[in-house]
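> example.struct
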């Protein structure tokens, strides 16, 4: 069977891929560019083994040849192409999209008030409760109103959202955990959820803490692309400053927890609101004190190197983060 997943909503794609594998009782296999299998490998089946779901982010050109395409469509295993879009100027792509035997799914990020509806649904799925005011505040803080229109000849041909459903999922989990069964209020959202830029940085830190290298770099790329109006060097310096600020907060909280201080004493000492302490403590669980200290030193060195060196700021960032992650 041949599936085609299109669109920028990578979170819902992720859920759909895992749901598909579970539904078919199949084993997931993500295929990288340097390990492209032969067609024959994708068609293999075994009475004593589970079927497979092969996920590609790019197809070799020969896969789309008529004789091979027929084999992939009729395969017992699932072959899934996961891309943002296909170039419709190419005949093979147009034929693929028109083929009624190819299962095509579009995963489009909710736009405008659709995001509010998505938030309500996700909270309900988790057994939580949220007020209308909290939904509106959360949607705004996630960047609902910062979508960019792409125009050609004065006509809008696409809309680019500046948030991800990964961030929506993360913030909802955080809010539900904080509410502890009560309704999530607008005050809770204001206390726990940062504005879009800082939220992106927290997502990067979460990915680093979970050792999810691929997702961490995706988040970093997204952050830098959103700052494309400024030069690369300024964008990297800004990112470094935000990362340093968050890691310093984690370091301070870890130090205070080692002194066996309770939340009330920590809040009094730092002058923070309960929501901020809740978030930082959650992130602190992903790192040990030695790792944070080392990371802060590396970020400080990166700041100095970027500001004094002629070397590409992005190259320095990648070199430092490879050591941190």
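> example.seq
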């Amino acid at each position: 069977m041949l599936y085609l997943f299109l669109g920028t909503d990578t979170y819902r794609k992720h859920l759909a891929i895992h749901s598909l594998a579970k539904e078919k009782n199949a084993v997931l296999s993500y295929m990288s560019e340097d390990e492209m299998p032969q067609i024959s490998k994708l068609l293999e089946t075994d009475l004593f083994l589970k079927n497979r779901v092969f996920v590609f982010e790019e197809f070799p050109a020969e896969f789309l040849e008529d004789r091979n395409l027929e084999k992939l469509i009729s395969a017992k295993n699932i072959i899934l192409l996961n891309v943002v879009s296909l170039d419709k100027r190419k005949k093979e792509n147009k034929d693929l999209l028109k083929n009624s035997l190819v299962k095509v799914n579009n995963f489009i990020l909710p736009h405008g008030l659709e995001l509010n509806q998505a938030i309500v649904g996700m909270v309900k799925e988790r057994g939580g409760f949220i007020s209308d005011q909290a939904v509106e505040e959360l949607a705004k803080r996630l960047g609902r109103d910062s979508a960019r229109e792409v125009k050609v000849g004065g006509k809008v041909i696409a809309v680019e959202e500046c948030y991800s459903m990964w961030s929506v999922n993360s913030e909802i989990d955080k809010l539900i955990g904080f509410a502890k069964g009560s309704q999530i209020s607008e005050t809770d959202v204001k206390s726990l959820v940062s504005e879009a830029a800082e939220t992106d940085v927290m997502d990067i830190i979460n990915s680093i803490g979970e050792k999810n290298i691929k997702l961490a770099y995706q988040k970093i790329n997204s952050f830098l692309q959103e700052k494309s109006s400024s030069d690369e060097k300024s964008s990297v310096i800004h990112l470094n400053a935000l990362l340093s600020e968050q890691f310093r907060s984690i370091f301070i909280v870890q130090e205070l927890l080692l002194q066996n201080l309770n939340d009330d004493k920590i809040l009094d000492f730092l002058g923070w609101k309960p929501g901020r302490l809740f978030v930082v403590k959650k992130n602190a669980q992903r790192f040990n004190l030695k790792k944070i200290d080392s990371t802060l030193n590396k970020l400080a060195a990166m700041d100095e190197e970027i500001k004094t060196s002629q070397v590409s700021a992005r190259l320095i960032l990648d070199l430092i983060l490879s050591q941190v992650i």
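> remarks
The mean pLDDT is 85.
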